[in-house]
Amino acid sequence: MSLRELAAQSKHKRRRSTLKRSRRKGFRAERQLVKKLRDYGFKSVRVPVSATRSERLPDVFATKGENLMAFEVKAYDADRAYFPRKEVEKLFGFLDLFDMYDRKIAVLAGKFPYKWVFRRVEKPDDYVLLREEESNIRFE
After folding, report:
1. Residue 41 — φ and ψ, nearest 5°?
2. Which of 32, 23, 99 is nearest to 60 (CA)?
3. 130-134 — which CB contacts under 8 Å span 24+ positions?
4. Counting beta carbons within 10 angstroms of the beta carbon of residue 48, is it exposed (0 to 12), middle (13 to 18) or buried (19 or more)?
5. Within a 13 Å sphere around the CA of 64, how many CA atoms are in the beta-carbon half?
6. What is the pLDDT of residues 3-33, one digit of tens each?
């Protein structure tokens, strides 16, 4: 094996390792959110990652009374979290499946070091959550 092939193989392994670490961080944030919601009296569940990308499933969803909430969750060490329109559209597609709920709420959740930021969104679009912004939704 040539040095060039060894270097390319090593680079591929590093990239794969970084991706796995990033995904684990996201899964951990989703589990933390489920626990946080349950502490506030919601019935909540993390949707398994086995769903295909074409499915209209959120990362987490929760119910309390007449409220149904669908969450898209990002966990970053940076100061911003980007939510592409296609991911936000899935939240609204999921919420549209449940006519029996009076209040259907789409929420973007950013887990930053030592801080959560939650933003309720009213329409599908591209969004950026900033670490320094305040949440526009409360769970109490």
Report:
1. 95, 10
2. 32
3. 130/79, 130/80, 131/78, 131/79, 131/80, 132/79
4. exposed
5. 13
6. 566 556 655 555 556 556 667 777 889 999 9
Q: Are strands 115-121 and 103-112 parallel, antiparallel or unpaired?
A: antiparallel
DSSP 8-class letter at 107: E
Per-residue pLDDT tens digits for 51-73: 556 677 899 999 999 999 999 99
Domains of the chain, start order: 3-130 (3.40.1350.10)
Start-to-end Cα distance in the chain: 60
Q: What is the pTM of this model?
A: 0.81
The phi-psi region of residue 5 (left if phi > 0; otherwise alpha if psi is between -120 and 50; otherwise beta) is alpha
Position 48, amino acid: P
